[in-house]
Amino acid sequence: xxxxxxxxxHPNSINYLEELYPAIRKTDFFxxxxxxxxxxxxxxxxxxxDFLKTCSLMIAEGxxxxxxxxxxxxxxxxxxxxxxxxxxxxxxxxxxxxAVSKHxxxxxxxxxxVKKLNAYMSSFLR
Length: 126
What we know:
Nucleoside 2-deoxyribosyltransferase, 6 helices, single chain
């Protein structure tokens, strides 16, 4: 199976370096695909608009509202890149997410997120 580009979008207000990125690294699909974390090495602006043109999927962490993430979601939708929205249990995601995606995962903790992402991705990557 050909390796797919998967972009992980998120607000800068969450602890993505210690919580989100490590959880995604534990998934089965991380090992066999090109999963891009935009701020893994730097907080500098990442050219997500161009990268999204090559993507098979965008994963959007929507637990906190963020203008930049909303812009990226708009680009992904315009480019017809499928969007998977993930969010922490008890958080209210922006209503506009429903305009760009039909795929949502609510998770309680890291283990729950890894389990649910693996289940979703096993059918998505077929």
